[in-house]
Amino acid sequence: MRRATPLEFPFPSAPAPGSVTQVAPGVLWLRMPLPFQLDHINLWLLRDDEGWTIVDSGIGNEATRALWQQVFASALGGLPVRGLIVTHYHPDHAGNAAWLCQRFGAELWMTQGEYLTAHAVRAAGAGYTTDAVLEVFRRNGLDEAHFARMSTRGNQYRELVPDFPLSYRRILDGDEMIVNGRRWRVIVGYGHAPEHASLYCEELKLLIAGDMLLSTISTNVSVWSIDPEGDPLKLFLDSIRRYRELPPDILVLPSHGLPFRGAHERVAELESHHAAHFAELAQACERGGCSALDVIPVLFRRKLDAHQMFFAMGEAIAHLHCLYYAGRMSRATGADGVVRYASAGKPARALE
Fold it and tell me: Average pLDDT of 330-348?
């Protein structure tokens, strides 16, 4: 989703690769490239009394590490990295965790759900396999052509997160972390990842939002194989409402896009965005017989490659689940094993 917005962007340009921009006292912004359509991630350096704390790490490849070396040489003032906070397990956030921790002897701080998930996905254990995901997608209408293209993915996570620390310091919702004498409160959110950690500093009126509150795109929220009947979109929408408890003029530091002010407005935009999708899906499914694959054109009005289609399927299922559990959809499983949905009050005809 990209459209005009009432948000304020006090830093209109991102720092060049390998350089930093100060966004608040003791808070530096750097940006690393990503080899995807979403082509960058924002990372953060927090000045500590005896060094630095890093928030998120970029993917674990040589290009990103070379840029980190430039940052080490130019921005740290000869001081060491004392800690690494990883907001969640996704590879653009966790890919260099082991490399950074080993290089500096730094501690890794994460929620338990994210730490254990990172290890499970790297090991392709606990149901975190491409085959398991594709079976869920097949039950939700994925055809053989898409299935064949997606089945060649392999364990891409392990490629982007080549190693991961074997110990960590656990953080919980409501914990306060002291960095350079300032208190950063942990706000755990759900839906995008198991236990995503955002960090709020009241003194600086600053929120490191990770992927939970992005300025111009909507966060991916998908159903995956380990929780095939889950309702992650409701969890996500419930989670972002908590940002209304923070002052309306805080500076939000997102993982993608530009820092912005207007957190309350952005929450309202995202709620409106998903409400519009719900209404469109209800209209599309009025006659029944809609699988997740069938409604992807309703949610995504552009051509999708195999990588994008993988996440689009997860999102489509998440939207339909949210409507179903809210009582706005019925569903039925056909003789072909495919789950299909209909707007409430209509039979979900199990078309084959």
Answer: 86
The segment(s) of the chain belonging to CATH 3.60.15.10 are 21-273
Domain spanning 21-273, CATH class: alpha beta
Q: What does the pLDDT read at residue 350?
A: 39
What is the CATH number that goes with domain 284-343?
A: 1.10.10
Helices (H), the chain: 62-75, 91-94, 97-104, 112-122, 130-139, 144-150, 156-160, 232-240, 263-284, 292-299, 306-325
- Cα separation, 120 vs 345, whole angstroms: 41
Place of tokens 């309306």: 248
Tokens (6 digits) for 286: 């009025």
Give the pLDDT band (50/70/90) at residue 352: very low
Q: How far does CA 76 lie from the centroid of its chain?
A: 28
Closest-CA residue to 58 (of 76, 70, 50, 74)? 70
Q: pLDDT, tens digit, for every residue of 208-229? A: 999 999 999 999 999 999 999 9
Residue 11 identity: F
What is the bridge-based pairing of β-strands 51-55 and 81-85?
A: parallel
Residue intervals of the chain classified under CATH 1.10.10 are: 284-343
